[in-house]
Amino acid sequence: xxxxxxxxxxxxxxxxxxxxxxxxxxxxxxxxxxxxxxxxxxxxxxxxxxxxxxxxxxxxxxxxxxxxxxxxxxxxxxxxxxxxxxxxxxxxxxxxxxxxxxxxxxxxxxxxxxxxxxxxxxxxxxxxxxxxxxxxxxxxxxxxxxxxxxxxxxxxxxxxxxxxxxxxxxxxxxxxxxxxxxxxxxxxxxxxxxxxxxxxxxxxxxxxxxxxxxxxxxxxxxxxxxxxxxxxxxxxxxxxxxxxxxxxxxxxxxxxxxxxxxxxxxxxxxxxxxxxxxxxxxxxxxxxxxxxxxxxxxxxxxxxxxxxxxxxxxxxxxxxxxxxxxxxxxxxxxxxxxxxxxxxxxxxxxxxxxxxxxxxxxxxxxxxxxxxxxxxxxxxxxxxxxxxxxxxxxxxxxxxxxxxxxxxxxxxxxxxxxxxxxxxxxxxxxxxxxxxxxxxxxxxxxxxxxxxxxxxxxxxxxxxxxxxxxxxxxxxxxxxxxxxxxxxxxxxxxxxxxxxxxxxxxxxxxxxxxxxxxxxxxxxxxxxxxxxxxxxxxxxxxxxxxxxxxxxxxxxxxxxxxxxxxxxxxxxxxxxxxxxxxxxxxxxxxxxxxxxxxxxxxxxxxxxxxxxxxxxxxxxxxxxxxxxxxxxxxxxxxxxxxxxxxxxxxxxxxxxxxxxxxxxxxxxxxxxxxxxxxxxxxxxxxxxxxxxxxxxxxxxxxxxxxxxxxxxxxxxxxxxxxxxxxxxxxxxxxxxxxxxxxxxxxxxxxxxxxxxxxxxxxxxxxxxxxxxxxxxxxxxxxxxxxxxxxxxxxxxxxxxxxxxxxxxxxxxxxxxxxxxxxxxxxxxxxxxxxxxxxxxxxxxxxxxxxxxxxxxxxxxxxxxxxxxxxxxxxxxxxxxxxxxxxxxxxxxxxxxxxxxxxxxxxxxxxxxxxxxxxxxxxxxxxxxxxxxxxxxxxxxxxxxxxxxxxxxxxxxxxxxxxxxxxxxxxxxxxxxxxxxxxxxxxxxxxxxxxxxxxxxxxxxxxxxxxxxxxxxxxxxxxxxxxxxxxxxxxxxxxxxxxxxxxxxxxxxxxxxxxxxxxxxxxxxxxxxxxxxxxxxxxxxxxxxxxxxxxxxxxxxxxxxxxxxxxxxxxxxxxxxxxxxxxxxxxxxxxxxxxxxxxxxxxxxxxxxxxxxxxxxxxxxxxxxxxxxxxxxxxxxxxxxxxx
Length: 1187
Known about the structure:
By secondary structure, this protein is of the alpha+beta class.
């Protein structure tokens, strides 16, 4: 909200003269609904211009404007407490209702379930159609101005009073109040580090996200603050300055602050009087500055403003009162004092959100006419004639209440005499008690009728006896069930992953939060252009999913069957705002209890990741930003490899019954299946071909209510969709989310199966083919049971989708799709006509399992290039990927969907030999410059506090060089364990660790032992335990505001380690396996020298670094706390000692180890409390400061 103190006093009085010009200058319909623009608006891409204007209520100022974050709606609230919404770029009126009788609407906020409207002392929540959800009244003296939705269930309300109120939206109750300085908070913003509160005194305070306590304050303007915004590491503010006796004057200098350094940078002079400002980040952090007179300007916050970037909103003499920017940054909305709302856009086909859900429109009341009855027909049933009940006599179906009420079965009567007899004559031999855990000769039954509710398929029909009693009735096959990792005292070191994966492909561990997307990560990895694209991509963003996928795919390439974990990718995934807005970030409780709707969730994730990668890989952020996987010349603006691979140009047509047709073109990356409706007279589902249903889903035609500019009202319109080209990979979301779609899929599979049975009966039997076994590990053979590669009719049970499709686009008939025999090629005539063959390469099913809450898996057809890299054979094979379980399967199993437990979610069809069009070479984008000196994120870090000396160009490591490494960690989530009845502890979920410090020490040369990396890793997640005794990390060391350490991002340090690994250096350390696991790095075994194994005897305990340093080096380390520099140096010295002992006396080294273990047992593995002597390691390495 704005502070109007010091402005023209006449701004509060809106006389009829103010809006008289508006009525004469704009064309209004009789109801004052819409202001039609010109017939066609031609917009230049990237340049904003007016798209539409409407007048909601002439003469009443628009106090608040807001773009809906969930749907394509624009909301406004005026000074009379009335709210109105407009749909889409045409701004057709969607809903209009009264929020408050007298007070003005000061702030509007959208939620998933409704809209929040804030007035002076009232908060009201409405549905988007206008129904009231709740009405929350505040104290009489309250003067609220702004809202801030901190999460989906918590809201902050601020105003001109001494407190900020926190409200729980579930209970609609005040949870707590935070005290603030008078005159209060007028504007609130939020980032991932702070709450930002703007005060009318001209100050902006930064507050803690948990406690709301002030952490920092910027004194921006001497008079008052009018608006501010935050993006990334920048805060920009505009306001008024005090001019002595002349009062307040609008300051034409914008104050810009760097949130990393917490200080102001050069103020930005603009050419308009700024009253509103917003960041509109596209390729750069662009600012939009708006004045009250309607003038606006775009400028860079760190550059000079140009007169060429000034624009003007045509308000016909009115003053601008509100301003908002859509989440897609494609649209701007202005509200003026005459009741007009102006929509500006930078794209011809504007969308308010990147991922908008469909808007529900009110359908017209259509009354079905009753069928005509032929009274002359002898067989006409009289029951078709509705007859009312005229008499009061009881009906035959009216059962008496005692007979209708359910009652439990009576238990067997046992008298005391019978009990004594039974106890006295108890047999010595007989059936063991407890078998089947239930009474014999009893049939369990349910008191009420069970409804099979398939909403998200969380329930699977139970057997009458119960699954706990009859395990053989378990419906989900073992390999499809949710896999879990068993933890022991050694963690996962003794867990047999090879039992679940006998291939050389790498699985993914499922214990990380939001690891439900593991199957889709594998899908993307086995698409060769995607694998090459993300491994060639590198940008400067701290959290980039394309970069993190590239790092993860690099590990999957190196792994020889060992599982990897996507911890860094999922860490970046949790920071993406769009993922949170789509509900893709799951709470731990939802994953463990099975409340997550995995079927719908993975389909939303599929749409999200393709769009996100499309956006990230087309951004240009510098010379090292993106090295595309395709060598083709750049095409149109916004083209990317993702767009070429999955993109399909779609033409959407909307035809009103008046004859007006609107056509627009968009790029879509996937399609959703739409199943035919069952007619009112149809009792059974008709037989449909998959190709036919897919064609109607792609070329969708449906009738809906839409705004017609020609008719100037909502009219029934026919919307059709056609495609102009075929994608290389066709992605399909199956949308089997209810019992209706499940029954349709089941019926079609039965039709197809019966047809296959008839076909097989008419043909002679075929001999079985031999089974290739090239995918197995060396010296092993996979079991051939169930892997027959010929297709029998019995194998086609529950199969509806084909393995191959032929697709083409004809000029006359449009899109043509048909089934195609597997293995056959197109003729030259068909290729000349533009036909293409699409092979099924991916199916993602959702397994329904009430015991575990269900899980997701993927069937992937792994291509020849992957087998060539892993096993050195040219072969294609279908595999099941279920987290770390990987198993070869028959091709028919990949398309079998028994919807009672296995529901289809996602399908991928790939054009045959599509990858030949792409450059599949990988050029490592990580350069040696990552090891050079870099700035610290910490404000208080000084060069005098440096603990390391960066490498120079002449010191760049070579293959085989030694590097001492040690890392320290902090705990994000505590371990979850249970105590068994025998007293042993069982780990249910391990603690979630995060790397906090990484140190690398030179292993040779004149500066041997001097660290060249000593990075403290900044984390934005809440730290539960700093483990100071073991890590040396103290609270505040990872905070950029107060830390004196060299603070960097995890991505920056990760790139340094990746460069060292790719160079081929050998890392020396103690317990490096855990370090690399938490850092999420895969290092080949010949590049790791771990001192914990150098001084270890088989079947004996591992020895600590402290004891080894005392025994061999006469060093007393880790006496109070751990220091990674000291630990890395000590590991290097131990390695030198190992070389000395094993080279000089190789036969005696075993005796040395025996002496080590004997000494350890005598001392109980505790280092004696004594000062270290002048051992060989006491002065082996100079200190950093000595250099």
